[in-house]
């Protein structure tokens, strides 16, 4: 986001607020609840979305130093191992020993290692995925080429500080996957220089779309978040832009925006006046607040079950050292817990929504004109799913 864009977006919000409006869609939209509850829909999602296109898996600075690693519980029972190699490159492997398929490290584990040693038979891999050693390999595994038994690697690429993986190992992540405006946004947030404060992981019993929808509309703020977010925001006001695919930037203005008309434009500050949300494919949301960024991983485990991983990204220590001060730690801990409290307000509602959908009592959901980002989401989703083809197939 360059300076001209920042000023344009703030001016747009001020104009909408002055008119008592928000960013509208032309029409109301309705969808059958089947797309949230059907095993057939979920199977097609895996085929068309989660196995067929690059997916964001996290921030490169979750593994900032050579040897740093993070094991992620991913779709279809796959465990991913994101590692920064000795050469400084981030790679993503299957967290699976090539001998008997034992897992090298537990899901959710992170740390720093020069070697990954299988807990079953001690086959050992270096940080670039090569098989570095195996007990009595030459005598016991005659005919096998050690050089061809490195960890299974998924095609990956770091773009704007975000790690993208292609689940299809015969394809690549395009260098131009993110448009310039999205890349500009990553630079504006200084993603590449953020540090991980803490993570937390848990499973929510709701479809991934139910949870994603709650993150990209403000209509619910005054009700669902009346004691947390609502006092600081401007009600049902938001704007958003997309540049193709499931990639979008949303601006959620806060009350300091109302000071802007009395300030020179040189003092207009988006990070102070609004929260910024980026959707990065279907698996990662970025929520930027004034002094932190929450990276929210959303991994669909089943049609009605999603793993959530919260990662709080913060600036490096202000004194230039390697440790945050006591004041910085208190602020980061407060933000870490506050983000979780607000998310849980959404997630608890999401679980009740999913349960009601699965009961079959109501068979549709409706998006109002001011929930225009939800209409955008489902338009892109339907393109990826080729919903028209599904309808034709059913009729046949």
UniProtKB/TrEMBL annotation:
According to its UniProt record, what is one Pfam family this protein matches? Rieske
Record bears the keyword Glycoprotein:
no
Which CDD domains does the entry mention?
Rieske_RO_Alpha_N (cd03469)
Its cofactor is: Fe cation
Domain (Rieske): residue spans on this chain: 54-165
Query: Which UniProt keyword terms apply here?
Result: 2Fe-2S, Dioxygenase, Iron, Iron-sulfur, Metal-binding, Oxidoreductase
Keyword Oxidoreductase assigned to the entry: answer is yes
One GO MF term on file is: dioxygenase activity
Which protein is depicted? Aromatic ring-hydroxylating dioxygenase subunit alpha
**Species of origin:** Bowmanella yangjiangensis
